[in-house]
Structures are given as C-alpha cells and as structure tokens.
Amino acid sequence: MMADPMLATRSLRKAFGGIVATDNLSLEVAAGEIHAVIGPNGAGKTTLVDLLSGQLKADGGEIVFNGRRISRLKPSARSHRGLARSFQITSIFPDFTVLDNVALAVQAQSGHSFRFWRPAAGDARLYKPAGDMLARVGLEGRGGVLAGNLAHGEQRQLEIAMALATRPKMLLLDEPMAGMGIEESQSMIALLGELKSDYTMLLVEHDMDAVFALADRITVLVYGRSIATGTPADIRANADVRDAYLGTSEGE
Q1: CB 2 within 8 Å of CB 28
Q2: What is the pTM of this model?
Q3: What pLDDT, in 10s, does the model give residues 68-78?
Q4: How far apart are the C-alpha atoms of 101 and 95, rounded to whole Å?
C-alpha cells in the first residue's frame, strides 16, 4: 500500500440485482499519476467511476479522497472537494456557446444556481477563467461557436475544459477517446499528457494505444475485481491479463 494516496477505495461493492459490478475492490491512486483502469465488457469500469463521482451509491466499502471519507457525499460535494469527471457520452449544453458552457461550470463551482445564469451573463469573474480554460485545452477562438456545432473531438475538449473550470485536484475520465478518429485521439492523448503536470487522473479507456502512452500505472478489472495493478510493462507481461483481456476486444 502506498503512503497517502490521493484516492483510495477499500472493499468497495456494488451489485445490480444478482450482478456484482464492483466486487470488494480496493484501489489506490497516487498524487500526480495517471492511473488507467481497463478490462473487458462488463468489467465494471464505468460503474467504478460512477461510484467515485457519487452518481451511484455503493452497497459497501468506502472511498477516501485526500485523506477524508467521501462515500456519503453527494456529487456536488465531491466536486467541491476537488473531484471532477467526464462522461462516456459527451455531456455539454449544445444550444449554449462554447464559452457559456465553461462559464456555467465556473459558476457552478462558485456555488451559484443556474437560475441566476442570465443576469450573470457577461460577468468577467465567470468569463475570464472560462476563456483561460478554453485556451488550456486548445479551443481558443472557438468560444462564440454553439457547442452543438463543434466536431466530436472538440466537444470532448470542451468537456475537459468544463471539468477544469471546477478547479479539480483529480480528474475522473470515462473513455475520453470514445468515438474519436485517429487524429482526434492523438490530439486528446497530447492534451492529457500536458495536463498531467497539474492534475492527478483516473483514466477509464478502451483505446490501448492511449492507455499505454499515458498511464503510469494500470489496474485491470474482470467482473468487478482487480486481477492486476502495475506499470504498463508489468501489465503487458502479465499472463493472466493477456488471457483475460489484452488478447480480446475492449469496451464497456
């Protein structure tokens, strides 16, 4: 066990009827690392991210973030503690501009209701940090475009910008390369590599090229259980992992 991990799960459990999605899972993510979680269909990867972010309530076990138990906290409270997530399916406001989308995330982090959005439009306290986040993800100059008109890869960049606008300590990324072509995936790999210096990340991803390019450590899930955790080289060399997963197609 590592000293003072940023995120840890201890005997985490979640079942849906008779199907066990997370089976007494203990996992640790060190500060400053990209920790990838991989596994075959039905391994429980997205369920894990939902449990960590508070979208689902665990049946048992606990989640510790920055030394504090967060298992009973709502998603908004976890966000304010410094956990931000992206979704497997892009989650943006398509009828708002790109800049408005990020400004909404800034406003939400400040604790204000979306009901006050219209009077707040144009507030430099929202738009200055929103513009900074767009520049950080490579979307400078795209702020006035409707989010729904962005290319798929750009929408993923926007979602990352919205997550960064909440001032997180750690990013929970659920298949950020999903649906991307080769060039878009390469751009996202480069972006996440640049963000690594400032953010700890848990990365769920089916693109093995991305996983092995980015991850410091990898955990392999099968039927909700971890069968191996190690460096990319360790995972490549693990016979159990090859038999269970690396020789098969991936998805969730």
Answers
A1: yes
A2: 0.89
A3: 999 999 998 99
A4: 9
What is the rounded distance in angstroms from the CA atom of residue 43 to the CA atom of residue 224? 5
Tens of pLDDT, residue by residue over 171-183, are 999 999 988 999 9
Indicate the helix (H) or strand (E) that contains 68.
strand 68-69
Specify whether the CB–CB gap between 143 and 96 falls below 8 A: no
- CATH of 1-82+172-252, picked from 3.40.50.2300, 3.40.50.300, 1.10.8.60, 3.40.50.2000, is 3.40.50.300
Contact 10, 220 (CB under 8 A): no
CA distance 164 to 183: 23
Take residue 87 and report the two structure tokens written for it: 């979704």
Instruction: Render the burial of 65-79: b for 16+ CB within 10 Å, e for the rest.
Output: beeeebbebeeeebb
